[in-house]
Design a protein that fits this description.
The complex is a heterodimer of chains A (about 280) and B (about 300). A two-stranded antiparallel sheet of chain A has the order 1-2. With about 280 residues, chain A is mainly α. In chain A, about 75% of the residues lie in helices and about 0% in strands. Chain A has two domains: about 60 residues, no CATH class; about 210 residues, MetI-like fold (Orthogonal Bundle), CATH 1.10.3720. In chain A, β1 and β2 form a beta hairpin. Chain B is mainly α and about 300 residues long. Chain B folds into two domains: about 50 residues, no CATH class; about 220 residues, MetI-like fold (Orthogonal Bundle), CATH 1.10.3720.10. In chain B, β1 and β2 form a beta hairpin. In chain B, α4 runs parallel beside α8. The longest helix of chain B is centred in the first third of the chain and has 33 residues. Chain B is globular, with a radius of gyration of 25 Å. In chain B, about 40% of the residues are buried. Classes of the chains: A mainly alpha (about 280), B mainly alpha (about 300). At the A-B interface, α1, α4, α5, α6 and α10 of A face α2, α4, α5, α6 and α8 of B.
């Protein structure tokens, strides 16, 4: 009797808990459904009836996607390229310097080490947004406005990466350094040949996090970039929304295309990503 | 002298000297900190005492920017930001925690599938996703949310026209985008709690609620502190979500945050001095709230 009661309670709880998760999953996926279904409809239909979760075979087609190629001479793909170039540059440079510094802080004991780590923590708690005015004036003086380098300049050594790599390397055995030295490597050789391969999961997690940040970044690129062709997707998409009507024909397929690549990368790498993200970010 | 050069030759030069190596590793961050954080912070403080009209015309005006600070628009932006930050911290700390606890319980089927799925919104650009939210909460009576409330017999509304409902839409957008990230942080903390703690609690006759408050919550305290700290920062420095729903220049100022106001003053009104003063109030606010939060959470106490 007791046993059966427990079993039935377990079944009820399983149904409730799983049902709740399904509801949340619907909440998470609903905007994507709206986005995709709307991308198939003519812009006029969107203006007239707004969003709806309907598929209308008569008027739905992929022709809006073809329109991305012709809208203002295919400027959408310029934004796309811009976003991709900035994302790749920012991530590559960030990973290089972030891992170098994080490794240095974790592997060595030296004067000033605690001070530097404290600065990393304080900087992580500072709103970057308040620095944009002097940074922008710096770019003007250096004649770097409207350049990709100007966009990535404030992210060359991302503090969150330094913090993450430091946490990650702290968990690795320090004997690796001694062993490498005995084998005749310089300390830099040890880092690049021995440590970097061991740190691959950390690189995986930081790659996705950095790509996410860069792909979504709005404020700083908005300030730095002024040529239409150099705009990133968030800035460019913003320009298609005007008080005089929205270019839905471009907006919706453009939104779908902006989501696809990063979701595909995520689906392939999610195991490493989640494992890496949780292994170092939140300990002590 | 001779000895020094001998050791140099053996080790291969100055840069490979064991005393120097650590500094080579951390040098990029030191330079970065000086250029990207320290100098701009000092410059912002100085600029807040200046009137700046173009690169060459700079005039010291003492505290005038601060005297002019508390305009109606600034107060409105401050209210918008504070309201958003408050609900942001409450909702984005609690909801993902509850979801993470449920996901971790043995009652959810396909838990890892849900975990991966909940993270997907975090991959999208807020501007792009915001388009859908703007339309979903649109003014048309046929907009999805208005249709939904009409099904419950309520009047359709202009959700984004008012501070209160506008803030609610912002929180929903934020919850949608960030919930999955916080769930992963929480799960990593929950999974690190030794299972025998739960077993011991069960032997003591603890129920699910009691286990949550006496085992789970103390066990994930470092994660909780981390999540609250970044949520406070994200909440007060919010800008993109607001642009996604209202664009940059919303006439009524509904939804304009402190960062939005700073951007408006600095780049549209060309008043960098005042904008700097605005930015500094934000810095003080964020650091102050986080400091209080960290003290309340016992972050600075020695672990026993």
């Amino acid at each position: 009797m007791e046993k059966r009661y427990v079993d039935r309670r377990g079944v009820v709880l399983t149904v409730l808990a799983t049902g709740l998760m399904i509801l949340i999953a619907i909440f998470a996926m609903l905007p994507f459904a709206f986005m995709f279904l709307s991308s198939l409809k003519p812009g006029q239909e969107m203006l007239r009836n707004g969003l709806s979760l309907t598929f209308e075979p008569g008027i739905s087609s992929f022709s809006n996607y073809a329109a991305l190629n012709t809208y203002r001479d295919g400027i959408y793909w310029c934004w796309y390229r811009s976003s991709a170039v900035i994302m790749i540059m920012q991530t590559a440079v960030g990973l290089f310097f972030g891992s170098l510094v994080g490794y240095g802080l974790a592997m060595y004991d030296f004067k000033g080490k605690n001070l530097i780590f404290t600065i990393v923590l304080i900087v992580m708690m500072m709103p970057f947004e308040i620095l944009i005015l002097p940074l922008y004036r710096m770019l003007i003086r250096a004649k770097l406005t409207d350049s990709y380098f100007g966009v990535i300049m404030p992210y060359l050594v991302p503090p969150f990466m330094v913090f993450f790599f430091r946490q990650y390397v702290t968990g690795l055995p320090k004997e690796l350094l001694e062993a490498g030295r005995i084998d005749g490597c310089t300390d830099y050789g040890v880092f690049f040949k021995i440590m970097v391969p061991i740190m691959i999961p950390a690189f995986g997690a930081m790659t996705i996090l950095s790509c996410m940040n860069s792909w979504n970044n709005l404020l700083w690129p908005l300030i730095v970039l002024s040529t239409n062709e150099k705009f990133t997707i968030p800035i460019g998409m913003g320009t298609t929304i005007t008080p005089y009507g929205n270019a839905f024909d471009v907006l919706m397929p453009g939104a779908v295309m902006a989501v696809v690549p990063i979701v595909v990368i995520y689906l392939f790498a999610q195991k490493t990503f989640i494992a890496g993200l949780t292994s170092g970010s939140v300990k002590g | 002298m001779q000895k020094q050069s001998l050791s140099d030759r053996r080790r291969g030069g100055f840069l490979t000297d064991p005393k120097v190596v650590p500094y080579v590793f951390v040098a990029p961050f030191v330079i970065y900190f000086l250029v990207v954080y320290l100098y701009p912070t000092i410059a912002t403080i100085l600029m807040s005492f200046q009137r700046i009209e173009g690169p060459t015309s700079v005039e010291w005006i003492g505290l005038k920017n601060y005297e002019r600070l508390f305009s109606r628009n600034y107060i409105q932006a401050l209210e918008t930001t504070a309201r958003y930050a408050f609900w942001d911290v409450v909702v984005l700390t609690i909801v993902p925690l509850l979801v993470a606890v449920i996901l971790h319980s043995k009652f959810v089927k396909f838990a890892s599938f849900f975990k991966s799925l909940f993270f997907i919104p975090a991959l999208t650009s807020i501007i792009v996703a915001g388009i859908v939210f703007r339309l979903a909460f649109g003014t048309l009576p046929t907009a999805p949310v208005n249709r939904l409330v009409q099904m419950f017999g309520k009047e359709p509304r202009d959700w984004l026209m008012y501070a209160g409902t506008g803030n609610m839409v912002l929180i929903i957008l934020t919850l949608w985008r960030w919930m999955g990230v916080n769930i992963i942080y929480y799960l990593s903390g929950i999974q690190a709690i030794p299972t025998d703690l739960y077993e011991a609690a069960e032997i003591d006759g603890a129920g699910a609620v009691s286990k949550f408050f006496h085992v789970t919550l103390p066990g994930i305290k470092p994660v909780l502190i981390y999540v609250i700290t970044i949520t406070v920062l994200g909440g007060f420095a919010m800008f993109t979500e607001s642009v996604a729903l209202w664009q940059q220049n919303n006439p009524g100022g509904v939804g304009r945050t402190i960062v939005g106001y700073m951007y408006l003053m600095g780049f549209y009104k060309n008043n960098m001095g005042l904008a700097s003063a605005v930015g500094l109030t934000l810095l003080v606010l964020v650091l102050g709230v986080n400091l209080i939060q960290l003290i309340l959470m016992g972050f600075f106490k020695k672990e026993d």
